[in-house]
Amino acid sequence: QVQLVESGGGLVQPGGSLRLSCAASGSISSRYTMGWYRQAPGKQRELVATISSGSGGVTNYADSVKGRFTISRDNAKNTVYLQMNSLKPEDTARYYCNTAWYWGQGTQVTVSS
To answer: Would you give the DSSP letter of residue 46?
Structure first.
């Protein structure tokens, strides 16, 4: 059984930073792409960023977060990170980790003054 556990969410002021972590436990191969998605109230879940497997993981970002968010992964720890800088109120959402067909429970990020 694979579990994805997110952490690092919280309340932050506009312009602030947060670092999300997602640890995968169980028998999950590091060969899968890992990613972050988010869902705001009343909206569909949307892609935030993904990173492919391998030592030189290829990254992909939503246009809305390019230049502000950075995704990275530690294959030895089966963990993916999302460094979020220059946060805006519109980044407020529940952030979910994904790999293969598995999803975490999400961690809430609220950007507000």
So the answer is: E
